[in-house]
Amino acid sequence: MEPAGGVLARVLRDLGLERDVLGWKAVQEWPRLVGARVARHARAVAYREGTLHVEVEGSAWMHELGFLKRELIRKINQQLDSGVVRDVRFVLPHGGGWK
C-alpha cells in the first residue's frame, strides 16, 4: 500500500496544484527560508503564478531587498528543492504601516 504522503503528492501533481502548494509553503516558511535578519523587515504574504509577494518595512528595505532578489529566489528554491519561485515582488503594506 502506498503511503498517504505519496498519494497526496501524486494527486496534487495530477491536478496541476503541486507548484501552488510549494509556493504557499514558501509563504508559510518565509522566516526559515530567508533568515531572521530579512524576516524582521519583510514578510511573504501571497504566492501567485510563480511570484512571491512580500511586504517590506519601508522603502529602504524595499531597495536593499531589490539588490538581494536573485539570491533570495535561489535560496528559497534550493531549500524547497524546486524552481517554484520565479520572481519576488516587494511592496509596502496597505496603509503604509508596518505591523
Explain what the structure shows.
- The protein is of the alpha+beta class and 99 residues long.
- It has a single domain, classed as GMP Synthetase, Chain A, domain 3 (2-Layer Sandwich), CATH 3.30.300.180.
- The protein is 54% helix and 18% strand.
- The protein has helices at residues 4-14, 18-28, 30-34, 36-39, 59-80; strands spanning 42-48, 51-56, 87-91.
- Strand 2 (51-56), helix 5 (59-80) and strand 3 form a beta-alpha-beta unit.
- The longest helix is centred in the C-terminal third of the chain and has 22 residues, at 59-80.
- It is elongated.
Number of helices: 5
- The geometry reads as elongated
CATH architecture: 2-Layer Sandwich
What is the CATH C-level name? Alpha Beta
Instruction: Kindly report the CATH topology.
Output: GMP Synthetase, Chain A, domain 3
Q: Provide the CATH superfamily.
A: DnaA, N-terminal domain
What is the tally of beta strands? 3
Q: Order of helices and strands, N to C? A: HHHHEEHE
Strand order of the largest sheet: 1-2-3
Provide the structure class: alpha+beta
Share in β-strands: 15-25%
- Ranges where pLDDT stays below 50 over 5 or more residues in a row are none
> Could you report the average pLDDT, rounded to the nearest whole number?
86
Terminus-to-terminus distance: 47 Å
The largest β sheet comes out as:
3 strands, mixed
Q: From the alpha carbons, calculate the radius of gyration and give it in angstroms.
A: 15 Å
Q: How many structural domains? A: 1
Percent of residues in helices comes to 40-55%
Features:
99 residues, alpha+beta, GMP Synthetase, Chain A, domain 3
